[in-house]
Known about the structure:
This protein has 178 residues and is α+β, with helices and mostly antiparallel strands. It has helices at 2-20, 34-47, 50-55, 59-71, 76-80, 134-138, 149-160, and strands spanning 96-102, 105-112, 117-126, 129-132. A four-stranded antiparallel sheet has the order 1-2-3-4. It is extended, with a radius of gyration of 26 Å.
Amino acid sequence: MTRILLLLTALALLAAAFSCAKETPKYDAHGDTPTAAYKRLFAAVKAGDTSAIKGEMTKKTLEFNHFGAQRFGKSDDEEIRYGMTSTTQTDTLPQIRDERVKDNMGALEVWNAKENRWDDLPFMIEDGKWKLAYGDGYAGIWHSPGKPRSEIEGDAANALRPPLTPAANVNISSAPKR
């Protein structure tokens, strides 16, 4: 009987501990999404509005852009005019897929027609909205919310191929036997 009472007491204490535990912080971007952030960035690049482009990037990304501009002897506005991604260098909005979000970090795959591949773009919530987060990735702040679809598809394609087997060690003389 005492064992049952001790077990029930332990379970009650565990339940109380879990109910008092801190909640994980909820990140609210007020209905905003990484996809919407990319579309705003694309529109700002097409309009040539560098202040709007900067508004779609995190502070760390703007710092990262500043260092890149200094390195290449350009102004910040010259360096940022394409939104730090070659996916914006098309006339029409490129194909977008595989939006992934975890807490305040997100990612989005955008078709890069220039390089004929999917680019996985990082986003973070900053100042209540999603913003491009390249600089946060280089600073080690941004972490991927999961594998991109292009990587998953590549892994699946590789799994279908038979493994390459090394050639057998062939030490046979080509001279005929006498």
